[in-house]
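Journal club prep, notes for RB
We'll compare a predicted complex against what the paper describes. Inputs for the adenosine monophosphate case:
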Amino acid sequence: MNDCIFCKIITGEIPSKKVYEDEFIYAFNDIKPEAPVHILVTPKEHITSAAEVDEKNSYLIAKCFEVIAKISGEKGLNGGYRIINNCGHDGGQTVFHLHFHLLGGKVFNDL
Ligand code: AMP
Ligand code: ZN
């Protein structure tokens, strides 16, 4: 029994605003945007966090970054953008299915 909310979004069981999908990756708008563009990019395979990346699944991280490069262009983020991964409780992770936040449409000054 998989209770992961992002797995359910990926299968369509929970609705989302899809931005991109392929065999490996699903990207959708964050429900609580922190910037004009706030997209979550996630592997379809359930990986709990960045701490679970290994030699078998690390190709999915590369695919996430390929998708980020593609959709940031489509969203007109030509001046740049921010990519965030929160890892684990201390890293502020709240959904334990590995994802990258793609944030853009504003200038980020702080770390
Ligand atoms: P994190 O804190 O890095 O684990 O990020 C989890 C993100 O998922 C937060 O920015 C939430 O706003 C977002 N989120 C939670 N539930 C949903 C949902 N059903 N649809 C879209 N985004 C969601
Ligand atoms: Zn999951």
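Talking point for the session: The pocket of adenosine monophosphate (ligand 1) is lined by residues 5, 14, 16, 30-32, 40, 86, 92-95 (CB under 6 Å).
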